[in-house]
Specification:
By secondary structure, the chain is an alpha+beta fold. The chain has ten helices and twelve strands. The strands form three sheets. Strands 1, 2, 3, 5, 6 and 7 form a six-stranded antiparallel beta sheet that branches. Strands 4-11-10-8 form a four-stranded mixed beta sheet, with no helix packed on it. A two-stranded antiparallel sheet has the order 9-12. A hairpin with a 2-residue loop joins strand 10 and strand 11. Helix 3 runs antiparallel to helix 4. The longest helix is centred in the middle third of the chain and has 28 residues.
Length: 324
Amino acid sequence: MNDQAVVLLEQYDIEVLQTRKGRGAILCDTKTGTLIFKEYLGSEDKLQIQKKLLDQMSVHTSPEVEQILPTKEGALCVKGADRTQYILKTWREGRECNVFDKDECLTAARLLAKMHLRMELCDDDLPPVYSPENEYEKHNKELRKVKKFLHKKGQKTEFEFDLQNKLDFFLEQAEAVTEEWKKYSHLCDREQVHTFCHGDYQYHNIIKTGSQWFVSNFEKCTRDDPIRDLYLLLRKLLEKTNWSEDLGKSIIDAYEQERPLSALSRIDLLYRLSYPEKFWKIANFYYNSGKAWIPGKNQEKLDRIVSQEKEKQLFLQNILRKIE
């Protein structure tokens, strides 16, 4: 962040003792605690909804969630000379949730369920509900573009050959999941969904501070079935543990201790986990970046998802496909 942005803090009714860089933002030490000042890329309308949601959740203390602080004039964001937007939020010093500590992973699932119980807004003017069907169609179209590009490309790197060889398998999988989703989607009226999701509920944003937990970065919050957050938490953790059936089942059980899932929500979770999103991310990143030099991490990520495919399918079959 540009240090010149610090002068914008004068628009807030706070006394900043000192500032320091951290997490791609500026941490501000004040007499009442640490605040975080960071760029904001969304719309002001979405920020208003985010503020309303966080205010509603703040009456509960488990987990503690960040709060957006208004300026002296009541604005939720400020703009620099280059028109870049910034927001000021509460912050807690601590460490990220340990993905290799099973107890902490289960705690993260329970905290998520508790949050979801108070993330419903019934305002008349709500944003459109998220459509997985439309998102998957878009991803499939992008995968077909990559396939066409690689087919026409002459000289290919080892990564490009490998990506091309794997593309048909994962594209077929993606299209099959999308078609299954279409058959399922008519069973629920998504327009009646009034719940919001964190949108990026992963270990980076779940902070252990002393004996308490703090959840940050709600900028991606969106109107969707809460299963969206559980899906992301599961996928991130299971990719790191080779799709451990024991861990996955324990996380789902921990979530349901606070907020039981309906059969439809479990079907929703099954399809979200079944869609090859990680492969799409790798292919899409490759297609939209410079081709002169391809990072070695791309190959590592591709190798990892291919090596885990068998375990992933076993997990889906044994844990989620058997729905009464």
